[in-house]
Design goal:
With about 190 residues, this protein is of the alpha/beta class. It is about 45% helix and about 20% strand. It has a single domain, classed as P-loop containing nucleotide triphosphate hydrolases (Rossmann fold, 3-Layer(aba) Sandwich).
C-alpha cells in the first residue's frame, strides 16, 4: 500500500471537461501531475504517444495485461478499445513523490479506491444538451450516429455510475472556476494538502 492521498480520480462522461479541470488543478497545485494512461485505440489528430496516452495495438495491450504491466483496465464497449493504467508509468510517478490525478472510468476508480486510498470525483455536466454542444464544438464533423452513441453512454454513466463516486461536482459551461473551487475544498477536506 502507498501513503495516504497520493491518487485523485477525476472522471465523467465524454466532453464534460476532465482534461480542462485536471490541467487547472495541476496549474494551481504543482504537487499534482496527470497520470498518462494506456489505450488500444489509434491516436487522434495531434495526440502524441507518451504525452496524451500510451498507444498500443489491441494485441500489444492484451500482451501487456498478460505480463502484469496493466494495473487495471476496461474494454470500452462503444468503441471496442482497451483503456487502463500502464504500471511502469504509475510506479515512475509515485517513486518521484508526485500526487497523481487519474482520469479513469468506474473500474479504475474502484481499483484506486481499494488499493491506493483514492478519492473519486465525478464531473457532471449542466445538462445533456450542454454536453451535446461541447461535443459538437470540439468535433463539428462528428457523425450523428457517433454523437447519439456518446450521449446515450453519457446518460448511462450519469444515471448508473455517478452514485458510486465519493463526490459529484458540476462543471457547467462557463463556470470552470466554481468547479475548481469546489474540488479544492474537497482536496482540503480529504487531506491532500492543508
Amino acid at each position: 500500500m502507498l501513503n495516504n492521498k497520493r491518487v485523485l480520480i477525476i472522471a465523467g462522461p465524454t466532453g464534460v471537461g476532465e482534461s480542462t479541470v485536471t490541467a487547472e488543478i495541476i496549474k494551481r497545485h504543482p504537487n499534482f501531475t496527470r497520470l498518462i494512461t494506456a489505450t488500444s485505440r489509434s491516436p487522434r489528430e495531434k495526440e502524441k504517444n507518451g504525452i496524451d496516452y500510451f498507444f498500443f495495438t489491441p494485441n500489444e495491450f492484451r500482451k501487456k495485461i498478460e505480463e502484469n504491466l496493466i494495473l487495471e483496465y476496461q474494454n470500452v464497449r462503444q468503441s471496442d478499445c482497451y483503456y487502463g493504467t500502464y504500471k511502469p508509468e504509475f510506479e515512475k510517478k509515485i517513486k518521484a513523490g508526485r500526487q497523481l490525478i487519474i482520469n479513469t472510468d468506474l473500474v479504475g476508480a474502484r481499483y484506486y479506491r481499494d488499493n491506493h486510498y483514492a478519492t473519486s470525483i465525478f464531473l457532471m455536466p449542466g445538462s445533456l444538451s450542454e454536453l451535446e454542444k461541447r461535443l459538437l464544438s470540439r468535433n463539428p464533423d462528428i457523425k450523428k450516429q457517433e454523437l447519439d452513441k456518446r450521449l446515450e453512454y453519457a446518460s448511462y454513466e450519469i444515471c448508473n455510475e455517478s452514485p458510486f463516486y465519493d463526490y459529484i461536482v458540476y462543471n457547467k459551461q462557463g463556470k470552470l472556476n466554481e468547479a475548481i473551487k469546489e474540488i479544492e475544498g474537497i482536496l482540503i477536506k480529504e487531506k491532500y494538502f492543508s
